[in-house]
Amino acid sequence: MYDQDDRLSCMRNGEEDVCNMCGGFGYLDPLKRQVCPDCQGTGRVSIYLPS
């Protein structure tokens, strides 16, 4: 379970969060940026094949 305090500054590396750009589920990379697999941080959701 996640902690109730899910503020971005308090989230642990790799913890899932809702993407601020497109609303999809992303995760925090080691540099504490939010990286979303749906929009890659651009806010535009594109269809791509996973590597």
In words, what does this structure look like?
With 51 residues, this protein is mainly beta. It has one domain. The chain contains no helices and 3 strands. The protein has strands at 16-18, 25-28, 34-35. It has a 3-stranded antiparallel beta sheet with strand order 1-2-3, with no helix packed on it.
Could you write a compact summary of the structure shown?
This protein is mainly beta and 51 residues long. 0% of the residues lie in helices and 18% in strands. The chain contains no helices and three strands.
Question: How does the SSE layout of this entry go?
Answer:
Layout: E1 16-18, E2 25-28, E3 34-35
Antiparallel strand pairs: 1-2, 2-3
List keywords for this structure.
3 strands, elongated, disordered N terminus, mainly beta, 3-stranded antiparallel sheet, 51 residues
Shape: elongated
Q: What is the SS-derived class?
A: mainly beta
- How many structural domains in the coordinates? 1
The percentage helix is under 10%
What is the number of helical segments per DSSP (H or I, 4+ residues)? 0
Q: Specify the biggest β-sheet.
A: 3 strands, antiparallel
Radius of gyration computed on alpha carbons: 11 Å
What's the mean pLDDT score?
55
Regions with little confidence, pLDDT below 50 for 5+ residues: 1-6, 8-13
Order of helices and strands: EEE
Cα-to-Cα separation, first versus last residue: 29 Å
Largest sheet, spatial ordering of strands: 1-2-3
Percent of residues in beta strands: 15-25%
